[in-house]
Amino acid sequence: MRVVNTIADMTRLRAAFGAETLGFVPTMGYLHAGHLSLVRQSVAENKCSVVSIFVNPMQFGPSEDLERYPRDLERDFSLLKPLGLDIVFVPDVGEIYPPAAQHGTTVTVYGPTERLEGAMRPGHFTGVATVVAKLFNIVRPTRAYFGQKDAQQVAVISKMVSDLNFPLDVIACPTLRESDGLAMSSRNVFLTPGDRATAKFISGGLFAAEALWQAGERDAAVLESVVRESLRRGNFVNIDYVAVVDPLTFDPYTPGSTAALIAVAARVGTTRLIDNILLSCVSRL
Ligand code: AMP
Questions:
Q1: In what order do the strands lie in the sheet with 261-268?
Q2: What 3-state DSSP class applies to 189?
Q3: d(Cα 206, Cα 275) in Å, to the nearest integer?
Q4: Cβ distance 163 to 109 under 8 Å?
Q5: Global pTM value
């Protein structure tokens, strides 16, 4: 496993891989088992694999947690080493956004960015799409692996890849959870034991909605109210949204469409958590 810090080195090593399949897993580091499951899938499905670790300032709003985002590169390297990947690409901010260039070009995806995370975090998805487009051009993967945990991000990146003709497949991978159901996240490190006891009511509500869906319930308001009820039992005060949406467009779910996703964002203590469950399969995801 080689650690590469510059675009020049990454480009040179990428060229040496030639036409072999190359799997790519973009991350912001502070890795957990969810990230590692993406890496394992990439290693299993491709001749070569690259993981990037880059905390992307462009996707954080001015009042968000860029400064306190957890970082521990040595720990990340030791978790990645046994997995058999080829390269960890760890550029610094100046490498990706050189000050002299006054980075003036961004990628904005319309459609799936309008609601939920897009509405709560203005500019977030432009930051995500811009850095992912840059990383795709630098790493030139055959397949790129993203977690369904960030379902709206999967929809945004899939649309960008389709609209801008990136020659690669986006692979959406299942959400890994703690034993109490909490979706794994680098930000879980900020949760106190009390926060953890509260946080599990997010997945609890999602599982209850999923059970209702499987029993035939198709009324979005009913499905959403089951999740809200669970959050109430967990004494959540700050709920950003609970919504049933189409998993590709993120438009509100309309009865009759076969695919649906129920998504939640809520704050516990000082930490904002997001989670979702696909209520039925979507062939493109
Ligand atoms: P991040 O470092 O948070 O940007 O995440 C990097 C990638 O890992 C993204 O594609 C995430 O969706 C994915 N990911 C994060 N948490 C999980 C999880 N609990 N299970 C599976 N994938 C995840």
A1: 238-245, 261-268, 271-278
A2: helix
A3: 8
A4: yes
A5: 0.97
Tell me whether residue 282 is in a domain. Answer: no
- Picking from 17, 3, 94, the residue whose alpha carbon sits closest to that of residue 52 is 3
Give per-residue pLDDT as tens, 72-100: 999 999 999 999 999 999 999 999 999 87
Residue 103 bears catalytic tag:
no
Name the residue range of residue 131's domain: 2-173
Q: Are residues 99 and 203 in the same domain?
A: no
For residue 54 and ligand 1, the question of a CB distance below 6 A is answered with no
Q: What is the torsional sign of CA 93, 98, 99, 103?
A: negative
- Which of 24, 25, 32, 35, when mutated, tests ligand 1's pocket best, judged by the most ligand atoms within 8 Å of its CB? 35
User: Which of 138, 29, 148, 5 lies closest to 77, judged by CA?
Assistant: 29
Atom 14 (ligand 1) nearest CA = 147
Q: What is the domain-level CATH number for residue 209?
A: 3.30.1300.10
Q: How many residues does the chain have?
A: 285
pLDDT tens readout for residues 163-210: 999 999 999 999 999 999 999 999 999 999 999 999 999 999 999 999
